[in-house]
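input
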Amino acid sequence: MNDERSFRRAQTKFILSSAIVYAFFYLTRKNLSMAQPGMLEEGVISTYAVGTMLTVHGIVYGLSRFVNGFWADRLNGRVFMTVGIALSALMNLLFGCTSLSILFAVFWVLNGWTQGMGFPPCAKMLTHWIHPKELATKMSLWNTSHSFGAVMALGLCSLLLGPLGLGWRWCFWVPAALAAGATVFCFFCVKDSPTEAGVEELEIDGGKKEAESKATVTSAERCRLVFGNRVIWLIAFANFFVYIVRFGFLDWGPTFLKQFKGIPVAKGGLMTIAFELAAVVGTIFAGWVTDKWFKGRGVRTCVFCMLFAALFSFGFWYLPSGAPIWQATLLLMGAGFCIYGPQALIGIIAANQATKEAAAMANGFTGIMGYLSTLVSGIGVAFIKTHYGWGAALCSFAVFALVGMILFLCAWNSKATGYKK
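output
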């Protein structure tokens, strides 16, 4: 009993500490969405340049998650994550110090690579700390760090740009300073595994303990666990469409709210914060539903989430421009509530399907598919907006959500985990 209590205490500390650090990864990449209206008005960058930068950043981030997924399964997750957040802080500092378009691109693309050093080690560490039967609920709670990080970025930048009246550069300098503090916290407070924290490893039916896993699992076996699994391929392609909708609202939110709805940047930032706060509730709810109702079968939860995400996206597009702000906010919140469930569950499904021996690699693969979506949510949205207006761009989000729903539906009958294979 004492051993179990010790493990639970150590597990809670790990979930909280790693979630806090991961929130700072989001702080140092979602700050661009608040800074870009000021950059556009100042003329230091164009709409197409922003779209292109978002696209390349997303692709590089996806590649980084994929490549670093291979390394994270083999190396110490705490050290790996510490290096990543330190480099992200540096890239933000340098981005805020330049005025050249080419250097904006260089620093933000490099930031995309260093950002990809955050989630793969977390995916690996979480599967060592949490049993598959609890993974959907507890990892969904952990996954709210995405939203809290985005809320930090939106709220902090709204404060810097609004009441404090500072320029867009401070949207990078202040997050860089805060992320530097998170680097120290990560190194000393995050524990790679129960063994590193001084408690017993998890025993999982059909799986291996830490020492056995490191001794016996080869690269070929890890590749088989990931690339030989039909469910992982389906959710990876579905992730492409999940991220189009998610990034469409998050990366362009303050901009299209100002240009399409006539809402000031500071208020648009608050509305996007509401989108993210609803996402926190939606993420936790999706994890609870998966474990409670669908017995760990996350793809079933994703089907319903994508259906309702499509309906809320369509409703936001259909809402007249002169409608009250509260109506637009509620529709945004509905979309956020629904779209973040699949975003969190895909990582959980991939980890359970690939088992803890290849969880980071599986999440790297689904991640690269998700971030290839920036071909559409970045330069694609810029093209649609330029030629057809924001209305067409917003309507397309509903269509993409329905395509994602169909892909999840194809995996409806899949098993909850791959541990007994």
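quick obs: The chain is about 80% helix and 0% strand.
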